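Sample 1 of the test manifest.
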Amino acid sequence: MSSSFLTIDSICKRYGLLRALEAVSLDVTQGEFLTLLGPSGSGKSTLLAILAGFAEPDQGIVRLNGRDITRLAPEARRFGVVPQGYGLFPHLTVYENIAFPLRVRRSRSASINGRVRQVMELLQIGSVKSRLPRELSGGQQQRVALARALSFEPDLLLLDEPMSALDALLRRDLQAELVRLHRQVGTTFVYVTHDQQEALALSDRIVVLNHGRIEQIGTPRSIYAQPATRFVANFLGKNNLLQATAAIGPLGRLHFHWNGHRIAAGVTAPFEGPCSLTIRPEAIVLTKVGHSSQGTKDRILGTVVNHTFHGASADVIVAVGHESLTVTLTAAASPPVPGDEVWLAFDAERLWCLPEADTISPAASATSPELAA
Amino acid sequence: MILPSAIALGREFAGARFQIAPVRGLSVQDGLVIGSVLVLIACYLLPLGAVVALSFLVPVPGIGNYWSIFQNATVHAVVGKTLWISSLTVGLTLLLGYITAYALVQAGPVARKLMLAGVLLPLWISVLVRNYAWIALLSPGGIVNSILIRWGWLDQPVSLVRNSFGVVLGMVHYMLPYAILPIYAQMARIDSTLPHLARSLGASPRQAFIRVFLPLSRPGLAAAAFLTSIMSLGFYLTPAMLGGGKTVMVAEFISIQVTETLRWDIATTLSTLLLLVTGALVWRFSHLLELATAKPKT
Amino acid sequence: MSASSPRSLHPTRLAESTGRAVVVFLVLPLVAIIPMSFSDTRYLSMPHDGLSTLHYWRLFSEPAWRDSLLQSVGVALPAACLALLIGLSFCLGAWQRQGNMVRLLQILMLGPLIVPGIIHAVAYHRALSFIGLFDSFAGTVLVHAIKGLPFVVLSVSASLSSVHPATLQLARSLGASPAQALWRTLLPQIRYGIAAGFIFAFVTSWDEIVVTLFITSRNVITLPKQIWQSLFLNLDPVVAALGSLALLATLLALLATSLSGSRLRSLPSPNTIA
Ligand SMILES: Nc1ncnc2c1ncn2[C@@H]1O[C@H](COP(=O)(O)OP(=O)(O)O)[C@@H](O)[C@H]1O
Ligand SMILES: [Mg+2]
């Protein structure tokens, strides 16, 4: 990894009293697929608009290869943009939309033709080249918008929720295609989405935004396994958050007290005391009472209250005392039914804990705590 | 012609759409259409048709009236003057209207509301009153002249009305709201991110305007051109009041034939030709009607 | 993308000042008549020695002005009702019908708005003389109703376009007769469009001058015609007073609609084509 390609330094942006972005700092590495993930209204599009040069931040600097580009005109940046809703020019055909960046740069017409053909082939839209945008399906529009943004070989591609208008099936196809495209053209992608599964599937790194602040930056795996905040723990995938107390035993081993149970952990926590214990639903082993079960030491007794079938997996809600846990089962031959008594065992390696919400400082959350398992 | 087709249409409609209760004979809706169309024919199309018919019948049947109109030097002069003033005023109106509509979309919400009110206000004040105000402002003894003299820009009063200048001014003033509103309606529909996007794709501000904003606003401009062209050809009141008899356009010329010289042949023939031109414009541009009557969004 | 036009994309500054200048030009004659209306002289001028409401009183006390005001109301009310009757019938009947015939009829209904006034003047001058209604109250009402018709058609069809297309079928499947379906389900949904159409038709008649000049003589003298005649004598400040009142009424109406967020649709043109 070379020195940073695009640097975003303490960006703030306000709309009246609303703080759309607050002290956002971020390094983008050349060639990576970086995803800005956050719920609607978290400031993703605002950040993208600042990168594209459509809006100026109130404070902060954007640097490209060390050069300050915060106030540089959009056309001088060479960033390709695929905005929300695609922003195809409705009066131009597919071909002319894709040729637009080349025409305004006054390229020779022969080279325009060659390049447009090349990009259309890359995205397999040659057959619709003389149609108008309104005559295209959603998926085709998305491809044209991509082609247009790539046609002038930009240094960076900014994509704002390009999948949000598509149906689930098409979305899956296009996700695979986007990954292929990223590999093929090698351009740096900054991708905005509110869909956590999409972010996990596509990205090299994910930046989680909430209320205009960065909650966490990291690889999909590290963010999933070691969320830095309660927000991240809840937002990415299903999770169980339990009010527990961390304690360090006589041998230096960490364990938690929760709901009258003692749970041994495979991780070390930097603190003792009240915390949020997280355990993924798929990291809990469930056995029916009466069956012989392994790891009897730390097992917890519960009662099944609900069962939801999802096809490849099933979610089971288990009541333990006054609290309840979600457990994901894969391919169970005789699934438990409501009323069944079950044993639960937690995978010690996949426990994770967060300090209580109010003790967390935003600065600490900006980088993922490197906790050894 | 129209009536039997309307009935046939009504039947087909009643059968096809109202499958819930098959209607025998005419439905209520058929009756409403037929009744209102009959009134339109009797009270509107018939009188208009009579004008057209007269132009071919009086004083002698045939196309003699048209023949003599095409050779009439006075008519040539009047038509020439009309075309010249019309194109000048339409051109000015479209230019100023486009810029004003652009200023409207760029303005903040409060400024936009105020400006829109300023654009709409003249539409509600009688054109008689407006022309009266122009005369009061611009005549030799008027306010503008006295101000210009007091500031030392003029030595003696000049007449700014009762000549072509007054007519052009009055017509542009009258037509401007009709140009601004459809252009603004169209501009407001343009996705405001597209010009930004064009720039991120490499276009300079000028290119973004010429290649993206202008083509997208063109339907509004076309609707405005359509409306103002039709208006400018038929202007009567403004040239009559502000032209002072010196700038006679087609409509005033026709009125003179009806009230003073009693030349009904010339009046009906010119009216028919004017109707034809208007009809042709409507026929060609009827798809613009919807935008031309679009209401402004605030 | 949330773009808040960060930097001027075009020579926007120039356009903004030109646009403002145009708006000033548009309201200039309207504003100018206000001081004139308070003139204390019998001829048009800026107030000399002091302000006076003389001309506002003359409007209601001088017989010529008072009578023309009454006549205008007397013509405009029935004309607007008649226009509403015809236009509403057509819109209700033609609702949801497609095809070239309907399209043609719709354009014909807009004819009185599009065709130059002078042609109407010539046509009705002949036609009303022919049937003996020249310079009559009835003839004037009829012609004004026809001139108001397009506005009724425009505003009623605009409000019809937002009504659910299956309204009538639904009402009938619930047991309503065709007439009941129209009266009880459709009309209530388009009442704002109807009100707007009526107002526009009224204002059209109230303002009509070109055709009126050609179809009336001594008997019928509406307000615009009285203005027209007064302008031949001198620039009477009464006209300025009238215009100021109209301006006040318009401003109040604009204010009321923008405050109440009324759904009365403001169509661009209540005026006839001059
Ligand atoms: N032009 C604007 N004016 C006022 N508020 C804005 C503007 N653009 C965005 N916002 C506000 O800023 C916040 C962040 O918006 P945005 O970046 O679009 O969120 P996201 O793309 O993550 O959904 C939202 O609360 C939004 O309402
Ligand atoms: Mg967004």
